[in-house]
Design brief:
Strand content: over 45%
Largest sheet: 5 strands, mixed
CATH architecture of the largest domain: Sandwich
Radius of gyration: 40 Å
CATH class of the largest domain: Mainly Beta
Distance between the termini: 151 Å
Number of helices: 1
Length: about 230
């Protein structure tokens, strides 16, 4: 009887001690985000973060612990990490959303589209800076008073413009230049300079002397009769 009791107690003791000595190891392939922990957005940005109109930027991201990852602005579902080229028409905030059983987290990245162009134009126009209108350094006619059928030299110098034009049938011109004009009557010419920040203008008047030249003075200087 005592032997039976001893055997029974030994079996009970073994049943208690054996499970505590056994370690169950989870395969590495099954290890995921800890229970209750939301995904982590490691990086989400665009490079460069500021582009000129028509330019492109590289949007890149890296997310861990997510079951699904998506980006708005029409991009949709993406891999947990990756990159893509974007070409927004205007300044745009992109938002990435990462989801698992614990919830959803988001991150944002702003890509700014400049309101001006930094690329010099082939006709010599200078690149302008943020918020700066063109500058008309010079616009004049020399001489400003001419006789009928005479000519004057119209000259100009403009910086920071995307386009420059002169009225009275002249049209588009380079940012700096000169040309001979021979108006039939007194005429005011206006130069117009434009960039992404606005338009400026300046005027120069060529006056036709109605009296003409009647002769030459003893000093050799033309005498203009009014």
């Amino acid at each position: 009887m005592k032997r039976l009791v001893f055997i029974s107690l030994s079996l009970v003791l073994l049943l208690i001690l054996i499970p505590s000595c056994i370690t169950v190891q989870t395969p590495a392939s099954l290890i995921t985000q800890p229970v209750g922990q939301a995904p982590v957005i490691g990086t989400f940005n665009s490079s460069p973060s500021a582009i000129n109109p028509g330019g492109t930027s590289n949007l890149s991201w890296n997310v861990t612990g997510a079951n699904s990852v998506s980006i708005d602005q029409g991009i949709g579902l993406v891999n947990a990490s990756g990159s893509m080229t974007i070409e927004p028409a205007s300044s745009t905030v992109y938002t990435i959303s990462a989801t698992n059983s614990a919830g959803t987290v988001t991150g944002s990245s702003l890509t700014t589209v400049n309101s001006f162009s930094q690329v010099p134009y082939n006709n010599g126009y200078n690149a302008t800076t943020v918020g700066t209108s063109p500058v008309i350094i010079e616009f004049s006619g020399n001489p400003s008073i001419i006789n009928s059928a005479g000519t004057s030299n119209l000259s100009w110098n403009v910086t920071g413009a995307n386009s420059v034009s002169i009225d009275n049938g002249i049209g588009q011109v380079n940012a700096s230049g000169a040309m001979a004009v021979s108006p039939a009557t007194s005429t005011t010419y206006t130069i117009i300079a434009t960039n992404y920040n606005g338009t400026v203008n300046s005027s120069a008047t060529i006056i036709i002397n109605a009296g003409g030249i009647s002769g030459t003075s003893s000093t050799g200087t033309d005498t203009i009769w009014h």
